[in-house]
Every structure is written in C-alpha cells, then in structure tokens.
Amino acid sequence: PDKGVPTSVLAPFRILKIVRQSLHRTTVVHCSAGIGRTGCIVAIEMGLQQILSGKPLFLIDM
C-alpha cells in the first residue's frame, strides 16, 4: 500500500524474483520521488546483479 511498509524483509526479494521471471520484457519502475521503497528495490536489484556476475560490490557506487 502507498505510504506503507512491507510486512516481511523478504518482500523485496519476492518482488524481484517475479520481475526476473520476465527477463525478455522491459521493466519500468516508477514513483513520485524514487528515494524510498522504489529506490531501495532498484538498489537491491543492482547490488544483486553485481554480486551474481561475480564482480565486487562497492556500496558507495550504488
């Protein structure tokens, strides 16, 4: 819900799992500011992709 918080810390990972199952489709992430939940989802995905590709993860670059 808008202005709410996930009930589980695993919720973002469940969302990203669903998104990854549609790899041949374009994914658009949108919100009014992009610094809260939406920004976190994008940052988590970027970090996971970095780790899964075997590259070092530097949080300062996120």
From TrEMBL:
State the organism named in the record: Wuchereria bancrofti
Q: Which domain of life is it from?
A: Eukaryota
Against InterPro entries, the record matches this protein to: Oocyte-zygote_transition_reg, Prot-tyrosine_phosphatase-like, PTP_cat, Tyr_Pase_AS, Tyr_Pase_dom
An example Pfam family from this entry, by short name, is Y_phosphatase
Gene Ontology terms for molecular function: protein tyrosine phosphatase activity
Q: What range(s) does the Tyrosine specific protein phosphatases domain occupy?
A: 13-46
| Designated name of the protein | Tyrosine specific protein phosphatases domain-containing protein
Q: Which residues form the Tyrosine-protein phosphatase domain?
A: 1-62
